[in-house]
Design brief:
Low-confidence stretches: 225-229
Pfam families: LON_substr_bdg
Structural class: alpha+beta
Mean pLDDT: 87
CATH superfamily of the largest domain: LON domain-like
InterPro entries: Lon_prtase_N (IPR003111), Lon_prtase_N_sf (IPR046336), PUA-like_sf (IPR015947)
Keywords: Hydrolase, Protease
Shape: globular
GO molecular function, one term: serine-type endopeptidase activity
Organism: Mucisphaera calidilacus
Strand content: 15-25%
Number of helices: 6
Radius of gyration: 20 Å
Number of domains: 2
């Protein structure tokens, strides 16, 4: 059973918009819910299927109309609350796990939080055998000594195992390694798993090149700390 099949796309899903993309499928994030409208959203979600969709504001000036309904980017990540703690004053601490990419098709009038009808945003995942060469390249880059001192790469290495499908690995690695909001959102909005795999390879290669250049500049040695695979 796929993650998408466990989500009821026939009914509107609550939207929790933030300034940037903070969640991708398969990853987990911690959220502290303090606004009253989002406390109500969490309470309603806990009484139903525990799903909320993490959305992204479209306009960089979203703060100017925050109390209204600032426009949203079309792609969202539907997450499921897998752990919650309600604090004495009504706030919540949540652990939210990403379940599926989706696109907003229609928002519906609703108070005090926003809801929308969504549709799945994912093409069929390629077979692992078809991604074998790409997976080997990703593993090779993650083990590259030039990236070994980066905490984000070490974190991905620690959770890496051969049983993790490549499409899942890409989302987990991207959320951990990539700090660029626009790049994260582009990956969320990309429905083709094969193209997401290519993106991660390119990102890791670019990151490695940046590390090599930084070491060259800091040491003055054009051959410093270079291990090319």
């Amino acid at each position: 059973m796929t993650e998408e099949s466990q989500i009821n796309f026939e009914r509107p899903i609550p939207l929790f918009p933030l300034a940037s993309c903070v969640l991708l499928p398969h990853a987990t994030i911690r959220l502290h819910i303090f606004e009253h409208r989002y406390r109500a959203m969490v309470a309603d979600a806990l009484e139903t299927d525990r799903h909320i969709a993490m959305a992204v504001f479209n306009d960089p000036r979203w703060k100017e109309s925050y109390e209204g309904n600032p426009t949203l980017q079309p792609a969202v990540c539907v997450g499921r609350i897998i752990r919650e703690t309600k604090l004495p004053d009504g706030r919540y601490n949540l652990l939210l796990q990403g379940r599926a990419r989706a696109a907003i098709t229609e928002e519906h009038p609703h108070e005090p939080y926003r809801i929308a009808t969504l549709e799945p945003l994912e093409t069929d995942a390629p077979l692992e055998i078809d991604l074998e060469a790409s997976r080997q390249r990703i593993d090779q880059l993650l083990q590259d000594p030039n990236l070994g001192e980066l905490a984000s790469v070490q974190a991905v290495r620690n959770c890496l195992c051969n049983d993790v499908p490549t499409s899942v690995l890409v989302d987990l690695a991207a959320l951990t390694i990539c700090q660029e909001p626009a790049a994260r959102y582009a990956l969320l909005a990309q429905p083709d798993p094969a193209l997401r795999v290519k993106w991660l390879i390119h990102h890791l290669q670019s990151l490695r090149d940046t590390v090599i250049k930084a070491h060259r500049c800091s040491t003055g040695d054009p051959d410093a700390f270079i291990y090319l695979n």
